[in-house]
Structure formats: C-alpha cells, structure tokens
Amino acid sequence: VLMSVAGVGAQDASPAAELTPVSLQLQWSPQAQFAGYFAARDEGFWAAQGLDVTILDGGPDVVPQVVGSDPAGPEFTISWVPKVLEVRDKGQSDLVNIAQIFQRSGTLSVSWSDNGITSPADFKGKKIGVWDFGNEYEVTAGAKAAGLTEGTDYEKVIQPFDMSLLLNKEIDVAEAMIYNEYAQVLEATNPDTGELYQPTDLNIINYNDVGTAMLQDAIFAREAWLAEEGNEDVATRFLVGAFQGWQFCRDNPDACIQHTVDAGSTLGAGHQAWMMNEINPLIWPSEGGIGSMPTATWDQTVQIATDAGIIAAAPAEGAYRTDLADAARAQVEGDVNGADFVKGTVTVTAGGE
User: Fewer beta carbons within 10 Å, N or C terminal of the chain?
Assistant: First the structure.
C-alpha cells in the first residue's frame, strides 16, 4: 500500500522511469530501530520519489560517521549527533544533520529495585556500567550534574552490548537502550522465582527526565555533496520517502516488524515487537513535525559534548539545516506530527522469541 504524496509532480516515477541510485548507511545491524527506512524501500515510497536506495548494514565493525564522511561513501548516514559533532570538530567530516528523526533519547540506566538507585546522585560508591565509544556521555553527564566525580565517587565499568554484567550482579547499574537492552532483562528468567523478571524488579533512570539527554538517530549528508547541482533535490526526495516510511511504521507496526525481518534481522519476534513499540515514541509525537530539530535538546547536546571534552567548542553554524526537512514535510500527506500518537502494548516473551 502506497501512501500518497502531494506535490511530487515530475518526480513521480513510473515502473519504466530511471531511478537515481543512492545509499544509506545504518549505524547498526538490521533491527526495528531502522524500520522506517526498510518500509520506505519495501513499500515503494523512495521509488515513487525516483530513487533506488541501497541500505548498507552497520554493526560493531562499522563507524557510520566515518564511513559517511568519505566522499566515495554513501550519500546518507544514520548516526547519533554527538558522534558526528566529534568528527566534525576534528576536521574529519563535513556531515550535516538534515533531519532529526529521534526527538528523544532512548538511553536508560537500569538497576535492581532493592539497590535504591533512582537517580544519578545514587551512583555514589557504586559500580556504574556504561558503553564506551561515546555512548556513555548522557550517563556520565548525569553523574557530573549530581556532583559526582568518576573514579572518586563511583567506578565506571565498560560493559558489553548486553545486560550480562547486571544479570550476574557484577555491576550495580547498567546502561541500556529502552528499545533493546532493557527488554533483554525483562526477557530473562529470575532464578529466584523461575518466572521472567518484572518491571517492578528494576529501577529505571531515563535521561530525558534527568536533563542530560543527547540527540540520537538523525539523517546526515555531506555538505560538499549537498552543494553539487541537483543533490539538494535528491536529499529532499530521500527525506519524503523516509518520513513516509516512519509514518507507515507508526500506523502499521506489525508490517514494519516484517520489513525488518525481511531486511535480515535475526532478533526474535517478541524482541522485535518490543523494539518497534519503543522506537515509535522516540519519534512521535514531533512538535515541529517529523525530522524537525528540537533546538533546546540540540543546545543541551552541544553543551554536554563541550563539557565532556568531546568537542573543543560549539560547532559553527551549518552543523544542521532544517530547510530540506521542511521542504520534504510539505510534500507528505497525512499526519506529520503524530500529536494523537498513543504508544501500544506488547507482551514480553522469554528470550525475546
């Protein structure tokens, strides 16, 4: 089923029309975090915009902001904002944020409820698990805001990209994405009860509430590529299809789970359902419309990145632009804000199967 697009006009592609080939680099392996892009391809939204989009898988050995900075690399890249700010600050990239897809952060700190850790202030004297490679800044900024110093007041432990250290009680707190690792705990069996762990067994710190949330998944393109004749038009058409893909996933989550499976995801059906249900609330509602820039969170991201020494100074003007997303949204029919979006419910399954 194709969602109609107003104003496509001459770019509307018939099956015989020549499609413009472009590539999109994901920041991780196929999962529902990227379902809107799989839908844009598989539902024909990009083809209707005259584009033939190749989606490139990410993974632990792929650094998307570096791959996307290569003039011979993909035209479009999905990455977290602070990671791109870092390579821009080093003069290694001219990537520009052209659409801020995630309006909210998905980062949590998870601990056992009997530990009484309900805010970063409670990290004192504890072993705090975080991921490395720039994924830890929201957590460490939260601790800093609470007046705690790493190494003196708490021990920072680099954890693998799973919840094993928390489940084995080798750390007091674990970093988790609300759409992934948090579910991994709930999908595990409590050895004391023989049943799955319950949300009541856990304390959750959400960094949107703490005030140290940083912007995550956004669509980037190289400034030099955008400056070439015709490429702003290509980028706008790319965003039209991407926005439609995320609209489709908001309204048809089950179909988007299937698109994700078809894209090669090996995650279990239960875990996929959880992930899709948690990804949508990071995008919807979007006060300014999908892909718009929440400037207060941008400023917060820049401030935290500067305070943490990720970047030497705030980026120069041009690190993000809103005109392409504005132009794309104007061509997308239907609800582009999701003001009436209501998060669904899913049943947690053992092992995410």
Answer: N
With beta carbons less than 8 A apart as the criterion, state whether 25 and 58 touch.
yes
Strand partners, 51: 20
For residues 245 and 243, give the distance between their C-alpha atoms in angstroms, rounded to a whole number: 5
Higher local confidence (pLDDT), 278 or 9: 278
Q: Scanning the structure block, which residue is given the tokens 């909210």?
A: 104
pLDDT, tens digit, 9 for 90 and up, residues 293-349: 999 999 999 999 999 888 999 999 999 999 999 999 999 999 999 999 999 999 999
Handedness of CA 223, 229, 235, 240 (dihedral sign): positive
pLDDT (tens digit, 9 = 90+) per residue, 107-136? 999 999 999 999 999 999 999 999 987 789
3-state SS, the chain, equals: CCCCECCCHHHCCCCCCCCEEEEEECCCCCCHHHHHHHHHHHCCHHHHCCEEEEEECCCCCCCHHHHCCCCCCCCEEEECHHHHHHHHHCCCCCEEEEEECCCCCCEEEEEEHHHCCCCHHHHCCCEEEECCCCCCHHHHHHHHHCCCCECCCEEEEECCCCCHHHHCCCCCEEEEECCCHHHHHHCCECCCCCCECCHHHEEEEEHHHHCCCCCCCEEEEEHHHHCCCCHHHHHHHHHHHHHHHHHHHHHCHHHHHHHHHHCCCCCCHHHHHHHHHHHHHHHCCCCCCCECCCHHHHHHHHHHHHHCCCCCCCCCCCCECCHHHHHHHCCECCCCCCCCCCCCCCCCCHHHC
Partnered with residue 205 across adjacent β-strands are 109
How far apart CA 83 and CA 86 sit, in angstroms, is: 5
